[in-house]
Each structure stands twice: as C-alpha cells, then as structure tokens.
Amino acid sequence: MKHLILTIATYLALAAQAACGTALAIGDCRPPLMWLPVVLALIWFADARGIAWAAIIGLLADGMSDGRFGIEMLSATLAAAMSLPLRPDEDTRSRWPKLVWQFAIIGTGLVLSHGLASVFSNGSPVTIAS
Prior knowledge:
By secondary structure, the protein is mainly alpha-helical. It is about 65% helix and about 0% strand. It has five helices and no strands. It has helices spanning about 1-20, 35-45, 50-65, 70-85, 95-120. Helix 2 runs antiparallel to helix 3. The termini are far apart.
C-alpha cells in the first residue's frame, strides 16, 4: 500500500511541478516539489528501497528538467544515500529531529543538484555567494 501511495504522491508532485512550477517561481527559483516524495520515501523505507525510490523519482524529474539528463537522479540518489544514516530514531519524543532531518534532505539535494549542474555544464563554481 505504501508503494501505491508513494507512486500517486510522486505523480501529483511532478504534475504540480510541471503545471504550477513557473507560476510559483520567485525569480529563477522554482519550488522543489519533487523532493517531497523523496522525503516521504525515506521516511517510510529506511533501507535500499528508499534510495531506489529516490533514484526513480530523480529520473522522472530529469525528464522534466531543462538541464543535462541524469543530474537530478544523481543528486536525489546521493542525497538519500548520505542522509539515510543520519535518520533520527523512531523512539525520540520530540518531532524536531525528524523535521530537521527532512529539511536537510531537501537542502542537500538542492545543493547537490545545483552543484552538479554547474560542474557538468562547465558553468561557474558553486560558492556561498552564488
């Protein structure tokens, strides 16, 4: 059942990204809606299935991106693989560690996506100022 819900959530996030991405954009920055199902996959599956779902979602997001093919998939897979060992325990009383972890996945993925895009397109290097 989780796989079906995750498939529907992925479809809805990517459809919303395609339909409303430019309308919700602030300058050149579009909202990263494709990271929501990645976070959901890593919450539900704390093993290789979560990383596989992140790779599949990243591959689908690559089909919608205007950059080089494979950058979104690589950044989603690397973000999932790097942040999965840092996942907070289920028995913590507070919700804050898990919330910080979820935002860390999104932030890591966005930085990796932007950094890999600039490396593979021979653009300017990623710095704090950029």
